Amino acid sequence: MTHIRIGTRASALALWQANHIADLLRQVPSVGSVELVRIETTGDAVQDRPLSAMGGFGVFTREIQNALLDRRVDVAVHSLKDLPTLFVEGLKLIATPARAPIGDAFISHKYSKFDDLPAGATLGTSSLRRRAQILNRRPDLNLIDLRGNVDTRLRKLRDQNLDGIILAQAGLIRLGFENQITERLDPEWMLPAVGQGAIGLECREDNVEAVEALRTINDPKTWNAVLAERSMLFALGGGCLVPIGVQSIAEAETLTLRAAVLSQDGRQRIYDQISGASDRPQELGALLAGKLLDAGAKQLLLN
Ligand SMILES: NCc1[nH]cc(CCC(=O)O)c1CC(=O)O
Questions:
Q1: What pLDDT does residue 168 have?
Q2: What's the pLDDT score for residue 253?
Q3: Are residues 47 and 91 in the same domain?
Q4: Which range marks the domain in which residue 149 is found?
Q5: Would 191 be classed as within a structural domain?
Q6: Is 79 in the pocket of ligand 1 (CB under 6 A)?
Q7: Is residue 273 part of a domain?
Q8: In this structure, are 151 and 64 located in the same domain?
Q9: What per-residue confidence (pLDDT) applies to 1?
Q10: 116 is catalytic
Q11: Among residues 82, 104, 163, 272, which one is catalytic?
Protein backbone atom coordinates (compact mmCIF):
# COMPACT_ATOMS: atom_id res chain seq x y z
CA MET A 1 0.00 0.00 0.00
CA THR A 2 1.32 3.43 -0.97
CA HIS A 3 1.46 6.45 1.28
CA ILE A 4 0.94 9.67 -0.70
CA ARG A 5 2.10 13.10 0.50
CA ILE A 6 0.22 15.85 -1.32
CA GLY A 7 1.95 19.21 -1.77
CA THR A 8 -0.44 22.15 -1.69
CA ARG A 9 -0.60 25.88 -1.07
CA ALA A 10 -2.30 26.82 2.20
CA SER A 11 -5.02 29.12 0.79
CA ALA A 12 -8.61 28.05 1.44
CA LEU A 13 -9.12 27.22 -2.25
CA ALA A 14 -5.88 25.25 -2.51
CA LEU A 15 -6.75 23.27 0.63
CA TRP A 16 -10.24 22.54 -0.68
CA GLN A 17 -8.71 21.22 -3.89
CA ALA A 18 -6.03 19.20 -2.07
CA ASN A 19 -8.63 17.66 0.26
CA HIS A 20 -10.83 16.84 -2.74
CA ILE A 21 -7.90 15.01 -4.37
CA ALA A 22 -7.04 13.28 -1.06
CA ASP A 23 -10.65 11.98 -0.89
CA LEU A 24 -10.43 10.68 -4.48
CA LEU A 25 -7.06 9.02 -3.84
CA ARG A 26 -8.32 7.30 -0.66
CA GLN A 27 -10.78 5.40 -2.89
CA VAL A 28 -7.93 4.00 -5.00
CA PRO A 29 -7.20 0.39 -3.91
CA SER A 30 -3.39 0.72 -4.14
CA VAL A 31 -3.37 3.84 -1.92
CA GLY A 32 -3.05 3.21 1.79
CA SER A 33 -2.94 6.70 3.28
CA VAL A 34 -2.81 10.32 2.17
CA GLU A 35 -1.37 13.34 3.94
CA LEU A 36 -1.32 17.08 3.05
CA VAL A 37 1.93 19.05 3.17
CA ARG A 38 1.41 22.84 3.06
CA ILE A 39 3.92 24.86 1.08
CA GLU A 40 4.21 28.63 0.86
CA THR A 41 4.76 29.95 -2.67
CA THR A 42 6.10 33.31 -3.87
CA GLY A 43 2.56 34.20 -4.94
CA ASP A 44 1.33 33.73 -1.35
CA ALA A 45 4.24 35.65 0.19
CA VAL A 46 3.92 38.69 -2.07
CA GLN A 47 0.38 40.06 -2.00
CA ASP A 48 0.88 43.72 -2.85
CA ARG A 49 1.80 43.52 -6.53
CA PRO A 50 -0.04 42.27 -9.60
CA LEU A 51 1.17 38.83 -10.63
CA SER A 52 2.17 40.22 -14.01
CA ALA A 53 4.67 42.49 -12.22
CA MET A 54 6.29 39.60 -10.34
CA GLY A 55 8.19 38.08 -13.22
CA GLY A 56 5.03 36.09 -13.74
CA PHE A 57 5.95 32.49 -14.34
CA GLY A 58 4.97 29.88 -11.82
CA VAL A 59 4.72 32.07 -8.73
CA PHE A 60 2.05 29.75 -7.29
CA THR A 61 3.61 26.48 -8.42
CA ARG A 62 7.42 26.59 -8.45
CA GLU A 63 7.98 25.88 -4.74
CA ILE A 64 5.59 22.92 -4.91
CA GLN A 65 7.45 21.56 -7.93
CA ASN A 66 10.70 21.95 -5.98
CA ALA A 67 9.18 19.92 -3.14
CA LEU A 68 8.38 17.16 -5.67
CA LEU A 69 11.93 17.20 -7.00
CA ASP A 70 13.33 17.13 -3.42
CA ARG A 71 11.07 14.15 -2.61
CA ARG A 72 9.34 16.04 0.20
CA VAL A 73 5.99 15.35 -1.50
CA ASP A 74 4.73 12.75 -3.99
CA VAL A 75 1.90 14.60 -5.71
CA ALA A 76 1.44 18.30 -6.45
CA VAL A 77 -2.10 19.65 -6.61
CA HIS A 78 -2.24 22.84 -8.69
CA SER A 79 -4.93 25.14 -10.01
CA LEU A 80 -4.08 24.24 -13.58
CA LYS A 81 -4.39 27.80 -14.80
CA ASP A 82 -1.50 28.80 -12.54
CA LEU A 83 0.80 26.07 -13.91
CA PRO A 84 3.16 27.22 -16.69
CA THR A 85 3.27 25.10 -19.85
CA LEU A 86 7.07 24.96 -19.69
CA PHE A 87 8.45 21.45 -19.31
CA VAL A 88 10.22 20.75 -15.98
CA GLU A 89 12.86 18.00 -16.18
CA GLY A 90 11.84 14.99 -14.07
CA LEU A 91 8.21 16.09 -13.54
CA LYS A 92 5.06 15.21 -15.40
CA LEU A 93 1.48 16.43 -15.44
CA ILE A 94 -0.46 13.16 -15.15
CA ALA A 95 -4.15 13.83 -14.64
CA THR A 96 -7.02 16.29 -14.31
CA PRO A 97 -10.19 15.23 -12.46
CA ALA A 98 -13.55 16.53 -13.75
CA ARG A 99 -13.48 20.25 -14.29
CA ALA A 100 -15.66 22.84 -12.55
CA PRO A 101 -17.50 25.50 -14.63
CA ILE A 102 -14.80 27.24 -16.68
CA GLY A 103 -16.20 30.77 -16.83
CA ASP A 104 -15.80 33.99 -14.89
CA ALA A 105 -18.32 35.60 -12.57
CA PHE A 106 -19.34 39.23 -12.09
CA ILE A 107 -20.00 40.11 -8.47
CA SER A 108 -21.63 43.38 -7.51
CA HIS A 109 -23.73 44.72 -4.66
CA LYS A 110 -24.97 47.59 -6.84
CA TYR A 111 -25.77 46.31 -10.32
CA SER A 112 -27.53 43.12 -11.34
CA LYS A 113 -25.53 42.54 -14.51
CA PHE A 114 -22.25 43.59 -16.07
CA ASP A 115 -23.91 45.47 -18.91
CA ASP A 116 -25.82 47.61 -16.38
CA LEU A 117 -22.56 49.19 -15.14
CA PRO A 118 -22.71 52.96 -15.82
CA ALA A 119 -19.92 54.79 -17.68
CA GLY A 120 -16.82 55.17 -15.53
CA ALA A 121 -17.79 52.50 -12.99
CA THR A 122 -14.93 51.01 -10.96
CA LEU A 123 -14.18 47.29 -11.26
CA GLY A 124 -11.51 45.32 -9.44
CA THR A 125 -9.37 42.78 -11.28
CA SER A 126 -5.66 42.45 -11.84
CA SER A 127 -5.74 39.67 -14.41
CA LEU A 128 -4.45 40.99 -17.76
CA ARG A 129 -6.86 38.69 -19.57
CA ARG A 130 -9.89 40.00 -17.71
CA ARG A 131 -8.74 43.63 -18.02
CA ALA A 132 -8.22 43.41 -21.77
CA GLN A 133 -11.55 41.68 -22.44
CA ILE A 134 -13.43 44.13 -20.21
CA LEU A 135 -11.78 47.12 -21.94
CA ASN A 136 -12.52 45.64 -25.36
CA ARG A 137 -16.23 45.58 -24.47
CA ARG A 138 -16.33 48.65 -22.20
CA PRO A 139 -13.38 51.02 -22.75
CA ASP A 140 -15.02 53.53 -20.38
CA LEU A 141 -14.70 51.41 -17.24
CA ASN A 142 -12.17 52.20 -14.53
CA LEU A 143 -10.16 49.08 -13.62
CA ILE A 144 -8.21 48.85 -10.39
CA ASP A 145 -5.78 46.16 -9.24
CA LEU A 146 -7.26 43.56 -6.95
CA ARG A 147 -5.10 40.77 -5.59
CA GLY A 148 -5.42 38.21 -2.87
CA ASN A 149 -7.33 35.04 -2.18
CA VAL A 150 -10.99 34.68 -3.08
CA ASP A 151 -12.25 35.75 0.38
CA THR A 152 -9.86 38.73 0.44
CA ARG A 153 -11.22 39.92 -2.90
CA LEU A 154 -14.82 39.56 -1.74
CA ARG A 155 -13.93 41.63 1.35
CA LYS A 156 -12.26 44.33 -0.80
CA LEU A 157 -15.41 44.58 -2.94
CA ARG A 158 -17.25 45.74 0.22
CA ASP A 159 -14.48 47.64 2.00
CA GLN A 160 -13.42 49.66 -1.04
CA ASN A 161 -17.03 50.20 -2.13
CA LEU A 162 -16.24 48.94 -5.64
CA ASP A 163 -18.94 48.70 -8.30
CA GLY A 164 -17.94 45.10 -8.97
CA ILE A 165 -15.22 42.47 -9.20
CA ILE A 166 -14.56 39.56 -11.55
CA LEU A 167 -13.53 36.14 -10.23
CA ALA A 168 -13.44 32.60 -11.58
CA GLN A 169 -16.72 30.76 -10.97
CA ALA A 170 -14.75 27.64 -10.03
CA GLY A 171 -13.12 29.13 -6.94
CA LEU A 172 -16.38 30.68 -5.74
CA ILE A 173 -18.31 27.44 -6.15
CA ARG A 174 -15.65 25.34 -4.42
CA LEU A 175 -15.49 27.68 -1.43
CA GLY A 176 -19.27 27.81 -1.02
CA PHE A 177 -19.64 31.39 -2.35
CA GLU A 178 -21.75 30.47 -5.37
CA ASN A 179 -24.62 32.51 -3.93
CA GLN A 180 -22.44 35.64 -4.21
CA ILE A 181 -22.36 35.39 -8.01
CA THR A 182 -24.32 38.26 -9.55
CA GLU A 183 -23.90 37.11 -13.16
CA ARG A 184 -22.10 34.29 -14.91
CA LEU A 185 -20.27 36.14 -17.68
CA ASP A 186 -20.89 34.87 -21.19
CA PRO A 187 -17.71 33.10 -22.41
CA GLU A 188 -18.72 34.39 -25.86
CA TRP A 189 -16.86 37.59 -24.87
CA MET A 190 -15.18 36.83 -21.50
CA LEU A 191 -13.06 33.89 -22.64
CA PRO A 192 -11.66 31.94 -19.65
CA ALA A 193 -7.98 31.42 -18.90
CA VAL A 194 -6.23 28.33 -20.21
CA GLY A 195 -6.98 25.55 -17.72
CA GLN A 196 -9.46 27.59 -15.68
CA GLY A 197 -11.62 25.45 -13.41
CA ALA A 198 -9.32 22.43 -13.73
CA ILE A 199 -7.09 20.87 -11.08
CA GLY A 200 -3.72 19.65 -12.39
CA LEU A 201 -2.01 16.66 -10.75
CA GLU A 202 1.73 16.43 -11.18
CA CYS A 203 4.37 14.03 -9.86
CA ARG A 204 7.91 12.83 -10.54
CA GLU A 205 7.83 10.84 -13.76
CA ASP A 206 9.77 7.97 -12.12
CA ASN A 207 7.25 7.65 -9.26
CA VAL A 208 5.37 4.67 -10.69
CA GLU A 209 2.97 4.26 -7.73
CA ALA A 210 1.92 7.92 -7.86
CA VAL A 211 1.57 7.91 -11.66
CA GLU A 212 -0.64 4.80 -11.54
CA ALA A 213 -2.82 6.16 -8.72
CA LEU A 214 -3.26 9.54 -10.44
CA ARG A 215 -4.25 7.93 -13.75
CA THR A 216 -7.22 6.26 -12.07
CA ILE A 217 -8.72 9.62 -11.09
CA ASN A 218 -8.27 11.32 -14.47
CA ASP A 219 -11.31 12.62 -16.36
CA PRO A 220 -10.59 12.06 -20.09
CA LYS A 221 -12.92 14.81 -21.32
CA THR A 222 -11.27 17.41 -19.08
CA TRP A 223 -7.84 16.05 -19.96
CA ASN A 224 -8.36 16.38 -23.72
CA ALA A 225 -9.71 19.90 -23.34
CA VAL A 226 -6.86 21.15 -21.15
CA LEU A 227 -4.21 19.47 -23.32
CA ALA A 228 -5.60 21.35 -26.31
CA GLU A 229 -5.68 24.64 -24.39
CA ARG A 230 -2.17 24.19 -23.03
CA SER A 231 -0.68 23.22 -26.38
CA MET A 232 -2.26 26.38 -27.84
CA LEU A 233 -0.70 28.49 -25.08
CA PHE A 234 2.66 26.80 -25.50
CA ALA A 235 2.61 27.40 -29.26
CA LEU A 236 1.67 31.06 -28.70
CA GLY A 237 4.55 31.35 -26.25
CA GLY A 238 2.76 34.27 -24.65
CA GLY A 239 3.69 33.66 -21.05
CA CYS A 240 1.47 35.71 -18.82
CA LEU A 241 2.09 39.20 -20.16
CA VAL A 242 -0.22 38.85 -23.14
CA PRO A 243 -3.96 38.56 -22.59
CA ILE A 244 -5.10 35.20 -23.95
CA GLY A 245 -8.54 33.64 -23.46
CA VAL A 246 -9.90 30.29 -24.54
CA GLN A 247 -13.13 28.34 -24.22
CA SER A 248 -13.12 24.67 -25.04
CA ILE A 249 -16.30 22.71 -25.61
CA ALA A 250 -15.62 19.00 -25.16
CA GLU A 251 -18.19 16.66 -26.70
CA ALA A 252 -17.99 12.89 -27.08
CA GLU A 253 -16.05 12.87 -30.34
CA THR A 254 -15.39 16.51 -31.10
CA LEU A 255 -13.53 19.25 -29.36
CA THR A 256 -14.14 22.90 -30.20
CA LEU A 257 -11.76 25.65 -29.15
CA ARG A 258 -12.59 29.36 -29.33
CA ALA A 259 -9.72 31.67 -28.48
CA ALA A 260 -8.59 35.28 -28.56
CA VAL A 261 -5.33 37.17 -28.10
CA LEU A 262 -5.74 40.83 -27.14
CA SER A 263 -3.60 43.89 -26.67
CA GLN A 264 -3.32 44.96 -23.02
CA ASP A 265 -5.54 48.00 -23.66
CA GLY A 266 -8.17 45.75 -25.20
CA ARG A 267 -8.30 47.71 -28.47
CA GLN A 268 -7.00 44.87 -30.59
CA ARG A 269 -8.57 41.43 -30.46
CA ILE A 270 -7.52 38.55 -32.69
CA TYR A 271 -10.13 35.79 -32.53
CA ASP A 272 -10.50 32.39 -34.16
CA GLN A 273 -11.92 28.94 -33.49
CA ILE A 274 -11.37 25.35 -34.50
CA SER A 275 -13.17 21.98 -34.21
CA GLY A 276 -11.78 18.50 -34.63
CA ALA A 277 -11.40 15.00 -33.27
CA SER A 278 -11.30 15.09 -29.47
CA ASP A 279 -8.58 12.43 -29.30
CA ARG A 280 -6.01 14.69 -31.03
CA PRO A 281 -6.16 17.68 -28.72
CA GLN A 282 -2.56 18.85 -28.99
CA GLU A 283 -2.78 19.05 -32.75
CA LEU A 284 -5.95 21.15 -32.50
CA GLY A 285 -4.42 23.54 -29.99
CA ALA A 286 -1.28 24.02 -32.08
CA LEU A 287 -3.33 24.55 -35.26
CA LEU A 288 -5.46 27.21 -33.59
CA ALA A 289 -2.33 28.95 -32.29
CA GLY A 290 -0.97 29.00 -35.85
CA LYS A 291 -4.17 30.58 -37.16
CA LEU A 292 -4.11 33.25 -34.43
CA LEU A 293 -0.42 34.02 -35.04
CA ASP A 294 -1.03 34.42 -38.79
CA ALA A 295 -4.04 36.65 -38.15
CA GLY A 296 -1.97 39.17 -36.19
CA ALA A 297 -1.35 37.66 -32.77
CA LYS A 298 2.35 37.47 -33.70
CA GLN A 299 2.51 41.27 -33.61
CA LEU A 300 0.76 41.45 -30.24
CA LEU A 301 3.08 38.83 -28.72
CA LEU A 302 6.16 40.78 -29.78
CA ASN A 303 5.12 43.88 -27.87
N1 LIG B 1 -4.67 32.87 -9.83
C2 LIG B 1 -5.64 32.73 -8.83
C3 LIG B 1 -6.58 31.60 -9.05
N4 LIG B 1 -6.16 30.38 -9.47
C5 LIG B 1 -7.26 29.58 -9.63
C6 LIG B 1 -8.38 30.33 -9.29
C7 LIG B 1 -9.77 29.87 -9.34
C8 LIG B 1 -9.98 28.42 -9.68
C9 LIG B 1 -9.74 28.11 -11.13
O10 LIG B 1 -9.98 28.94 -12.00
O11 LIG B 1 -9.32 26.98 -11.40
C12 LIG B 1 -7.96 31.60 -8.91
C13 LIG B 1 -8.81 32.72 -8.45
C14 LIG B 1 -9.58 33.42 -9.55
O15 LIG B 1 -9.07 33.57 -10.67
O16 LIG B 1 -10.68 33.87 -9.29
A1: 97
A2: 93
A3: yes
A4: 104-184
A5: no
A6: yes
A7: yes
A8: no
A9: 84
A10: no
A11: 82
Q: Are residues 8 and 92 in the same domain?
A: yes
In a shared domain, residues 78 and 213:
yes
Ligand 1 neighbour 171 (Cβ under 6 A): yes
Give the number of domains in the chain. 3
pTM (two decimals): 0.95
The pLDDT assigned to 252 comes to 86
Q: What is the block-wise mean pLDDT of the chain (303 residues), using blocks of 10 residues? A: 95 96 97 96 74 70 95 97 93 98 98 98 94 98 93 95 97 97 97 98 98 98 97 84 93 95 96 96 97 94 78
**Secondary structure of the chain in the HEC alphabet?**
CEEEEEEECCCHHHHHHHHHHHHHHHCCCCEEEEEEEECCCHHHHCCCCCHHHCCCCCCCCHHHHHHHHCCCCCEEEEEHHHCCCCCCCCEEEEECCCCCCCCEEEECCCCCCHHHCCCCCEEECCCHHHHHHHHHHCCCCEEECCCCCHHHHHHHHHHCCCCEEEEEHHHHHHCCCHHHCCEECCCCCCCCCCCCCCEEEEEECCCHHHHHHHHCCCCHHHHHHHHHHHHHHHHHCCCCCCCEEEEEEECCCEEEEEEEEECCCCCCEEEEEEEEECCCHHHHHHHHHHHHHHHHHHHHHHC
Residue with the smallest CA separation from ligand 1 atom 2 is 82
Task: Take atom 15 of ligand 1 and give the residue whose Cα is closest.
Answer: 168
